[in-house]
Amino acid sequence: MTSTKSKPLSLQFDGKESFKDRLRMLIGNRSVRAAAKDWGIPTSTLNNHLSKNTQPLLSMVQIIAHKESVGIDWLVNGQQAQQDVSLPDDQDLQDLNAILRSLEPVERKKLARLLGRKGAEVLALLLEQGGLDLLKLSGEQRTAALSLQELPADRVREILHAIKQCSTLTKEVNYKY
């Protein structure tokens, strides 16, 4: 980067989400001061963009986009660059991309929140004790574990009791020999 300032970039906002909104999204839980420090820009400059609707310099947009691993086009106007959105080699991704583009911005936002929430729920389940172990099961072990879902709770307790007894017996036999 050179020390000379870039010309102001003219921003055009297509949707309800503004440049300020996207900046706030990138700032996240950090303070404005912490974000400015992370991005290597003056806190006063960032404050001006958040409170006074000042036009950002292209150099600042490039720095923030690079540091936060987002596209400049997204940061400026909320849209992904064309090459970021579609992958011509994979028809399935093209189909999904077409479906997403057919949605209204509000619908896309709701879908993204739903996918994020459900993804977080699945990750929370995996973090529970034994969650990853269950996921690693394969073959007959997986079939047996899944079939337990269909049984009444008292039958599952009987099976677990029998497994514990069998496991104890196996340990005793191995210990004696």
**Termini distance?**
72 Å
Could you tell me the radius of gyration in angstroms? Answer: 27 Å
CATH topology of the largest domain: 434 Repressor (Amino-terminal Domain)
The total tally of domains equals 3
CATH architecture of the largest domain: Orthogonal Bundle
Organism: Candidatus Sodalis endolongispinus
Protein name: XRE family transcriptional regulator
InterPro entries: Lambda_DNA-bd_dom_sf
Protein described:
- By secondary structure, this protein is mainly alpha-helical.
- It has three domains: 19-84, 434 Repressor (Amino-terminal Domain) (Orthogonal Bundle), CATH 1.10.260; 87-120; 146-177.
- 68% of the residues lie in helices and 0% in strands.
- The protein is built from eleven helices and no strands.
- The longest helix is centred in the C-terminal third of the chain and has 24 residues, at 153-176.
- The radius of gyration is 27 Å and the shape is elongated.
Topology summary:
Elements: H1 19-27, H2 32-39, H3 43-51, H4 58-68, H5 72-77, H6 82-85, H7 91-102, H8 105-127, H9 131-136, H10 139-147, H11 153-176
Protein name: XRE family transcriptional regulator
Describe the structure concisely for a colleague:
The chain is mostly helical and 177 residues long. It has eleven helices and no strands. The protein has three domains: 19-84, lambda repressor-like DNA-binding domains (434 Repressor (Amino-terminal Domain), Orthogonal Bundle), CATH 1.10.260; 87-120; 146-177.
